[in-house]
């Protein structure tokens, strides 16, 4: 590769090549081919060392034999390979091969503690004395033989003299037969009776509170073509009703029956409008868009200061207890909605069962200073009617 | 039954109750031996038989076990031998000797051995259906003993393969699952396994456990192994001498190889001289 690049470079630069440069290039080419050859030779050497190590593993019994020439052969072979070693990788392989030979020799030296008898010799003698003659060896390799294990066992059984135990009646002697308990089937009672959800009648006449609030607000807007947003939704006496008014306004805007605009001074003005036609909705001229109106109790407190007393447009909705307690309805609000029927809340209590809460939760609103705690508790209790 | 008065008197327990406890211990040993296929019975289990009855006196369980031992010997002709559980050599060498000594006192177990003479035992008592296991036990112990008391799993299977036992064989005509058969020897405490972390991964070593190293059994095994005559007749001395001369030419690792070869030479000389002496005696 290096040679080719140099030739291209030379061609581009049109440098005349002298004989010295030619010799240099030839030398480089020789070096490159020599490097490749050396790489191949190293690889071959390492593979030879690997084969050598496998042979040590396979023929370790022969290496340690006294009369065997294998040890000499192996040492000569590893010595010849050692002469070719130049790089660290091959040096490692060489050291590993020598280590394997040494390990094999150490093992055989240890065996000389037993009068020179090695495990291999022991196995050879067993095969000689107890090997099966003409035994089934078709499914085994030539090296493995089968021996008569029973004969060996009979010869050496006295070495172990294992005592046979008792083979009968394993277990304690004083076990009594346990009578099986008679099974008593309990009558299974159905946990619940079959029930079906209540089917509500499609009563279109009855309006929810929200619908009524929407109608009231729309009427107010019709009278006051442009109303300030804060004047429209604020209820000075009740934060909760203020929120309900805002809720109703959001439905009106969603239906397209009211719109909020901003004048030059930055005031928000609400004005009624006709709901968009079906064509306008279908064509996409009229489309939904959302925004978040964040409103909390602090905002309501601030709104109280910004709106003058009496400028609230939405009537105050009397609660049931207020309706009972107030003899004269409040004259400021037209279309007094005293004792509005509230949407009953049904809830299943663990202790009381199904309870219908007829009164709203308005009683818990913080602005109700007139109601004392006891009256509030009593009202809550009255409002909850137990069904079962 | 009468107990030694000086020993029995220290326990304020009627003889009848002692008899019953001794009988239960004997019964437990006999049945457990059969149930466990000859695996040693732990001393804790025998002690539990006594303490579970509510006898909290010190040394009373030992007394009962000793009585059971004498009864097994006199009535059944069984020797109840006590074995001390041995630890793997690697664990002992890592300096945990104190811990092993603490646990050695609790790691006692018992086996029962027939005291009958060998001819009577072989003729009337020996179980013919399980005699092949005795053969395998002897062969494996012999191989490990000759390998220096410890051998790698690979090496062990290398030798067993020559005898027709393959590591992954499950249909051997005698042993079925050969690996399971070897595992049985470990459970019977003839062998113990030890896993050693090496540079090339985990290596499993097998070494002789307390039951194989028990003096009477170990001596008999050594005697039987030495009776196996081998057919090598060449002179160890000459072969070692040739190797010694050749190695003088080597340049690498001279000291280590020379030491090993000198050792081999020494052992070869001893074997050669011993054999010459024995041959002379036989002639």
TrEMBL record, chain A:
Primary localization: nucleus
Segments for region (Disordered): 182-210, 322-388
Compartments (UniProt record): Nucleus
Signal peptide: none
This protein's GO CC annotations: nucleus; Smc5-Smc6 complex
Comp. bias intervals (Basic residues): 183-193, 379-388
Summary of the function given for this chain in its UniProt record: Component of the SMC5-SMC6 complex, that promotes sister chromatid alignment after DNA damage and facilitates double-stranded DNA breaks (DSBs) repair via homologous recombination between sister chromatids.
Keywords on record: DNA damage, DNA recombination, DNA repair, Nucleus
Pfam family, one: Nse4_C
Protein name, per record: Non-structural maintenance of chromosomes element 4
Sequence ranges assigned to domain Non-structural maintenance of chromosome element 4 C-terminal in this UniProt record: 228-314
Comp. bias intervals (Basic and acidic residues): 195-210
Family: Belongs to the NSE4 family.
Gene Ontology terms: biological process: DNA recombination; DNA repair
Quaternary organization: Component of the SMC5-SMC6 complex.
Biased composition range(s): Polar residues: 357-376
Lineage top rank: taxon: Eukaryota
TrEMBL record, chain B:
Domain named MAGE: residues: 64-228
GO cellular component term of the entry, any: nucleus
A Pfam family this chain is assigned to: MAGE
Domain of life of the organism encoding this protein: Eukaryota
Residue ranges the record marks as coiled coil: none
Matches recorded under PROSITE patterns: MAGE
InterPro entries in the record: MAGE, MAGE_WH1, MAGE_WH2, MHD_dom
PANTHER family (UniProt xref): MELANOMA-ASSOCIATED ANTIGEN MAGE ANTIGEN, NSE3 HOMOLOG, SMC5-SMC6 COMPLEX COMPONENT
Protein name as catalogued: MAGE domain-containing protein
The organism of origin for this protein: Salvia splendens
């Amino acid at each position: 590769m290096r040679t080719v690049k140099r030739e291209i470079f030379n061609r581009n630069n049109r440098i005349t090549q002298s004989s010295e440069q030619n010799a240099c290039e030839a030398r480089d080419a020789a070096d490159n081919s020599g490097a490749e050859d050396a790489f191949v030779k190293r690889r071959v050497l390492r593979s030879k060392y690997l084969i050598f190590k496998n042979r040590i593993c396979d023929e370790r019994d022969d290496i340690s034999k006294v009369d065997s020439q294998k040890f000499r052969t192996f040492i000569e072979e590893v010595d010849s390979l050692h002469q070719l070693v130049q790089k660290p990788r091959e040096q490692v392989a060489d050291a590993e091969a020598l280590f394997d030979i040494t390990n094999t020799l150490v093992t055989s030296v240890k065996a000389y503690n037993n009068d020179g008898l090695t495990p291999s010799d022991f196995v050879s003698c067993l095969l000689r004395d107890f090997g099966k003659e003409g035994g089934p060896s078709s499914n085994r390799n030539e090296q493995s033989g089968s021996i008569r294990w029973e004969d060996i066992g009979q010869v050496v059984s006295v070495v172990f003299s294992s005592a046979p135990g008792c083979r009968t009646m394993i277990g304690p002697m004083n076990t009594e037969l346990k009578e099986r308990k008679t099974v008593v089937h309990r009558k299974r009672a159905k946990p619940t009776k079959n029930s079906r959800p209540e089917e509500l009648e499609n009563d279109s006449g009855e309006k929810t509170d929200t619908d009524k609030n929407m109608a009231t607000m729309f009427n107010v807007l019709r009278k006051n073509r442009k109303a300030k947003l804060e004047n429209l939704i604020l209820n000075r006496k009740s934060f909760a009703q203020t929120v309900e008014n805002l809720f109703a306004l959001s439905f009106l805007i969603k239906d397209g029956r009211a719109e909020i605009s901003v004048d030059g001074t930055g005031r928000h003005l609400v004005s009624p409008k006709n709901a968009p036609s079906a064509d306008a909705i279908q064509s996409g001229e009229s489309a939904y868009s959302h925004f978040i109106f964040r409103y909390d109790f602090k905002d309501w407190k601030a709104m109280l200061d910004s709106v003058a007393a009496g400028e609230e447009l939405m009537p105050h909705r009397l609660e049931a207890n207020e309706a009972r307690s107030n003899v004269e309805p409040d004259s400021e609000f037209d279309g007094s909605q005293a004792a509005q029927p509230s949407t009953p809340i049904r809830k299943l209590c663990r202790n009381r069962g199904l309870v219908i809460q007829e009164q709203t939760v308005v009683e818990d609103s913080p602005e109700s200073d007139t109601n004392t705690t006891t009256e509030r508790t009593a009202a809550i209790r009255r409002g909850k009617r137990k069904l079962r | 039954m009468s107990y030694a008065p000086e020993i029995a008197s220290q326990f304020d327990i009627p003889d009848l109750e002692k008899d019953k406890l001794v009988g239960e211990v004997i019964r437990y040993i006999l049945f457990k031996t059969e149930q466990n296929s000859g695996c040693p019975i732990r001393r804790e289990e025998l002690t539990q038989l006594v303490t579970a009855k509510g006898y909290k006196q010190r040394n009373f369980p030992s007394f009962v076990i000793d009585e059971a031992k004498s009864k097994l010997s006199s009535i059944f002709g069984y020797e109840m031998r006590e074995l001390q559980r041995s630890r793997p050599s690697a664990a002992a060498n890592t300096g945990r000797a104190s811990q092993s000594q603490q646990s050695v006192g609790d790691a006692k177990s018992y086996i029962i051995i027939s005291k009958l003479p060998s001819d009577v035992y072989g003729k009337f008592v020996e179980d013919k259906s399980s005699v092949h296991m005795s053969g395998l036990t002897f062969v494996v112990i012999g191989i490990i003993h000759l390998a220096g008391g410890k051998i790698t799993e690979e090496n062990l299977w290398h030798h067993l393969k020559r005898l027709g036992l393959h590591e992954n064989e499950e249909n051997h005509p005698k042993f079925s699952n050969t690996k399971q058969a070897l595992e049985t020897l470990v459970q019977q405490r003839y062998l113990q396994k030890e896993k050693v972390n090496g540079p090339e991964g985990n290596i499993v070593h097998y070494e002789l456990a307390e039951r194989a190293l028990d003096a009477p059994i170990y001596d008999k095994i050594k005697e039987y192994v030495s009776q196996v005559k081998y057919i090598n007749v060449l002179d160890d001395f000459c072969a070692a001498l040739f190797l010694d001369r050749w190695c003088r030419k080597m340049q690498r690792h001279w000291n280590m190889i020379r030491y090993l070869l000198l050792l081999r030479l020494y052992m070869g000389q001893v074997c050669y001289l011993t054999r010459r002496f024995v041959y002379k005696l036989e002639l």
